[in-house]
Predict the 3D structure of the following.
Amino acid sequence: MRLLKPFANLGLKVLAVAIAVFLWTVARGSSNVERAFDIPLTIHNLSEDLVVVGQSADAVNVRVSGSMVALRNLDPEGFEYALDVSGAKPGRSDYEVDVTRFEFPRGAKLVSRSPAEISLNFERRATRQVRVRADIEGRPAQGYRIGKIEITPPRVRITGARSEVLRISEVVTEMIDVTGATATLEREVRVSPGAGHVWADEPRTVTVRVRIEPEPAPEPAAGGEGTPPV
């Protein structure tokens, strides 16, 4: 009986394994797969007289098909969907999403995109001066009280969607905590018109001086100790 040698034809076996691995790699690399990613939306050529107060999407989702090799070379970080809104007017405008402008790697092709259309709402821009109110929180130390509050400048300019700007009569500063204070405080803080499509123009910060003063001594009650008898 002839015994089989464990290392007989070792070279052929190694070659066969190498060929199998190569064929598997080629097959895997040539088979089509799909990959989806979001392309952020950026707005270009917006008129200085308008403000965007609403949009139906912040990004465009695309699905691309291709070989693993092709999709491995696809870097979505460098993509953005630049939406040209030149000529826009107050109200709603709809824009068709056109992704044919993007150049995908060889071997990759676009399968779908969502949404197919982006809607934007525009409103006239307005500007006005409003007063500043300091947001004071807490209580000074016992025996002290809050005195005069000085804000420099006392008024700032805000800009934004006309309907929202006309409803705002004041902006509020960041919170200033006076808890336990025994001396006058001075802080440089930012101002905010609140949520919405309004922002503060320069200056965006103000200086707030909160005077902390001793509470006045209580006056003696009438008819108390030391009052001469009638």
